[in-house]
Amino acid sequence: MDRRVEGTKIVRRRAVTAVLAASALLLAAGCSSDSGGTPGPAAGRSSNPSAAQSAPSREAAEETPPAKGTVKVVRTVAEGLNSPWGLAPVPGGGGLLVSSRDEGTITRVDEKSGAKTELGEVPGVSAAGEGGLLGIALSPDYASDRMIYAYFTSASDNRIVRMLYDADKPAGEQLGAPDTVFKGIPKGFIHNGGRIAFGPDRMLYVGTGESGDKGLSQDKESLGGKILRLTPEGEPAPGNPFPDSPVYSYGHRNVQGLAWDTEQRLFAAEFGQDTWDELNAIKPGDNYGWPEAEGTSDDAKYHNPLAQWGTDEASPSGIAHAEGSIWMAGLKGKRLWRIPLKGTEASADPQAFLDGEYGRLRTVVSAGGNKLWLTTSNTDGRGTPKEGDDRILELEVS
């Protein structure tokens, strides 16, 4: 029977076929507010292995990155961007697609020249507070279908649409009509989540916020304060931990960072409130504690973060994996964090780079090998823009 999303509750939608379920199960087996809330006491960062997740045996054979790494800013790719939020590299050197939270537009940036071409405006975006046009991702079949997925705040909810990208049309008219893939994610002036990414299993992962209503995070029937896992068509993905539900993990406050390592393990960053921001290793069906726990907890029913920071030091948005480490962009912290990994634990203390040099940092994306794309976020209403803001930087890391 049909399954629809009504408000913040989940009700039934049609099931996927058994063949698709079996295939995805095999694949899956491998696999706060921007200011960080009201600043609490200065509580320095610490690294905390999770007691709730056992490390796979293959981790013993993985090479552990050095405790200390390096970051080099190779160049400024583009300047003059307004409230950039999502960033999606087009395969084959086809440019970088950037969403503008406040303008509701998607722009293509030539990664060599920095030239900008507006694809068009996404209809229905209602930008206010932390809401607007947020994360974007390319279809896993982008080479053949040319589909762009976008997460945005509408007048009634947060939702995901997909649109055809036709580069042969005139600038400003290159986005096709949006097809709504998923809707009903709670919206608020704060905590709208917004990061979307296709995983190694070709499923769509979605980081949501609790929209300022803390109780939604522990309610498994709500879409708020969750990581969702969907098929590209917006169905609950086969193999999800709760029957007929898109919920993959819960007990989150505001997830804006999603990334996988080379072993197809999922990591997520989320904003804390007064004390701790978190980097988590995500295990299907686990409870990450909010609002009962912020940071490390002694209660075994909550999955502890692998690293945590005082909210003044991080307020994390995007994350990426490169060179054996997670790289995490900090908004209020105005720095890029390196968290070296061994399996699903931090192998050394997190290390900070670019501290205050470029202001607020929003999104970090792998550019292949030891390179990253990094966007600043100084025109979002909470930063102090300098001449040239906002910008995209190219980094070399180790």
From TrEMBL:
Domain Glucose/Sorbosone dehydrogenase: 81-382
The protein, known as: Oxidoreductase
Biased composition (Basic and acidic residues): 383-398
PANTHER family referenced in this protein's UniProt entry, alphabetically: HEDGEHOG-INTERACTING PROTEIN, HIPL1 PROTEIN
Organism of this sequence: Streptomyces aurantiogriseus
Highest taxon of the lineage: Bacteria
Matches recorded under InterPro entries: 6-blade_b-propeller_TolB-like, Glc/Sorbosone_DH, Quinoprot_gluc/sorb_DH_b-prop
Start and end residues of each stretch annotated as Disordered: 33-70, 376-398
Keywords in alphabetical order: Signal
Record's keyword annotation contains Secreted: no
Signal peptide: 1-28
Low complexity bias locations: 46-57
A Pfam family this chain is assigned to: GSDH
